[in-house]
Amino acid sequence: MSQVAVFETVKAMREAVAAWHAAGEKVALVPTMGALHEGHIALVTEAQKHARRVIVSIFVNPTQFAPHEDFKKYPRTFDSDRAQLEAANADAIYFPAVEEMYPPGFASRVLLLGPAAVGLEDRFRPTHFEGVATVCCKLFTQSKADFAVFGEKDYQQLKVVTRMAHDLDLGIEIVPLATFRETDGLAMSSRNRYLSADERALAPTLHRVMQALAARIRNDDPLFQAVADAQTEIITAGFELDYLEARHADTLAPVTSRADGPIRLLIAARLGATRLIDNIGV
Fold first, then answer.
1. pTM surpassing 0.90?
2. Which of 121, 147, 177 represents a domain boundary (last residue)?
3. Residue 182, in any domain of the structure
4. Residue 225: in which H helix or E strand, if any?
5. What's 176's DSSP letter?
6. Residue 17 burial (CB count, 10 A)
7. Which of 40, 128, 166, 248 is catalytic?
8. Are residues 157 and 199 in the same domain?
9. pLDDT tens digit sequence for 244-282
10. 50 among known catalytic residues
11. Per the annotation, where are the binding residues?
């Protein structure tokens, strides 16, 4: 275990990264909003496979929350986060204030099309990916990292950020990591702590239903009927379903059968006040 450095300004982070690069060391960035769990630490471990130095950003980004969403109550657990990152031998935490990221007069945003405009998360959170892309673009250019590691749990986000980094020639390689799950299949998420005991017991239904749906698609069952049956099962179980869809795994365009290309199943559903998302490949 080593003590992790904490950078609160772009200047401090860039000075450290410049020294690492001057020494011939690669640098990886793991962007987070804090409230870290085992899935985040897995991202750090993956980053260490690609780079000698790893920075974990902790920033609850206000621009990706809609007015009705949980920005103010989003968990902030810096002391616990720092202890976990020290145990994981991360090199540094980038912990900027909102004013450091969005100083007075800030007036720029990243305009998105492609995987950001396919009628999934963007249909329910129309400003979300603009906020995600803007903060990620800033983090990438602020850190000058060689790699950035993202989990596949936020699959549309992964595709949006990968597309943006490529399109804008940001000079950073996006590294995906498979979703980390609890033993009962529930995708690890900082928002899982909002679930009541009864809701937590029901939550793994999402993964179970998606696994069964994937099996039906692999068995060449009619895709539309298989998806419709799975949607009905989710709603009957007590979820408020935003979407459960089969999409092309790369473009996120709608598909009609396995012949349309690799398929990804994506879901978003609510249990009480908590919104859960998940996805699996077929």
1. yes
2. 177
3. no
4. helix 223-237
5. E
6. 22
7. 40
8. no
9. 999 999 999 999 999 999 999 999 999 999 999 999 999
10. no
11. 33-40, 64, 151-154, 157, 188-191
